Amino acid sequence: MNRRIIGLLLLAGLIVLGCIAPGCIDTPQTTSGQSAPPAGQETPDPAAEGAGNVSAGNNRFAADLYRHLASDPESAGKNIFFSPYSISTALAITYEGARGTTADEIASVLHLPVNESLRRTGFAGLDAVLNHGDRNYTLRSANALWAQETYPFLPEYVDTAARWYGANVTNLDLAGDSEASRQTINRWVEEKTEDRIRDLLPPGSIDSMTRLVITNAIYFNGTWVKQFDPAETTEEEFRVAPGETVRVPMMHRTDEDAIYGYAETGTLQVLEMPYAHGNGTELSMLVLLPREDNLTVAEEALDAETLADLRDSMTDRRVRVVFPKFTLETEYSLLRALAAMGMPTAFSYDADFSGMDGTDMLFVSEVVHKAFVDVSEEGTEAAAATGVVMNLKAAPGEDTTPVFRADHPFVFLIVEEDSGTILFAGRVANPEGS
């Protein structure tokens, strides 16, 4: 069970992978390097039914989000890399405070177990597995809540986040000193990811209306069981499209000890490259390689049933492996993607997060995600972080008069009003220019 749970946590290119009163600050705790979760957090059997349900839901979400990102015209020809586990964990903590349609949509998109006990013990169990510790690799995940120090969140929500997700609270002046708060949260993310994820929250993502930020950070660093010899790495062509190649460093492992899990179909080759481990969970990279240039064949195999069938069909055999060294860094604002996938209400003024504060005044203003991966002869380093920013809706009677400040380039039209005909069109890039 452990191998299946963890082996599919980081799809999309790499598959590896309580106090809110004013003035009262608790530093978020993490299970990094510990053999048990933090004090107060439940310790269920990681192989329990809840963990299996949460893992299955996470993998379905991974495939859904991958396909959505891959189909986005802005992603055409670009690399994709993200941590579905990081995103689903941060949004699961957000879900704990959602109610009504808002909760239903989040649960549907994330494929969360409907049963409360299975959901909570599942996330707690997986968190315990990830933070179990191993002498041969580093793998850890951490959650935190960052709350406006004067805002009255419900004790039940705070307790749930801490007990089941290990997400303790730090009180900040999010509204009054947004920039200092942003930097504090970003420093926490950098610390948890060995500085691989920097500036998770971009400038302007926290403002005077922000009341809560929910974060997850995940980090992995492991070596291959069968490492590649750097002396065998050579510059070779990598085909990026039919008739188009680039020169990249390609690693080689073709000796008699190159024994790997392997499977193939008429259109696909599947390779499993394990990471060295001691007493912890087995981790591996699963690579889906189309026989031709049709990447769709590999992408269509990302559904849970197909992946399970492929893994079940794998046998250990000698394989001549030629694999590129690469480093990827990605960042996403996920509002549009998640809304299109079926949870738009959370991002609107119709959002209901009354489970957080007893009111309907909060909504999700941003979901940001950053990820990093480096694959070399020795092994793999990967990190990712997710931030969910909760803002206050404009209060009744508040001045919502828009400000139109044309202090940057703009387009203008001269229109004949009756017919709507555009007579002139232009762009002002520099008012002093010609």
UniProtKB/TrEMBL annotation:
Segments forming a coiled coil: none
Keyword Signal attributed: yes
Region called Disordered, residue ranges: 29-53
Residue span(s) of domain Serpin: 63-431
Subcellular location: Secreted
PROSITE patterns from the UniProt entry: PROKAR_LIPOPROTEIN, SERPIN
InterPro entries attached to this UniProt entry: Serpin_CS, Serpin_dom, Serpin_fam, Serpin_sf, Serpin_sf_1, Serpin_sf_2
Lineage top rank: taxon: Archaea
Record flagged with keyword Glycoprotein: no
The entry's keywords: Secreted, Signal
GO molecular function, one term: serine-type endopeptidase inhibitor activity
One GO cellular component, as annotated: extracellular space
Entry similarity comment: Belongs to the serpin family.
Protein name in the entry: Proteinase IV
Organism of derivation: Methanoculleus sediminis
Lineage: Archaea, Methanobacteriati, Methanobacteriota, Stenosarchaea group, Methanomicrobia
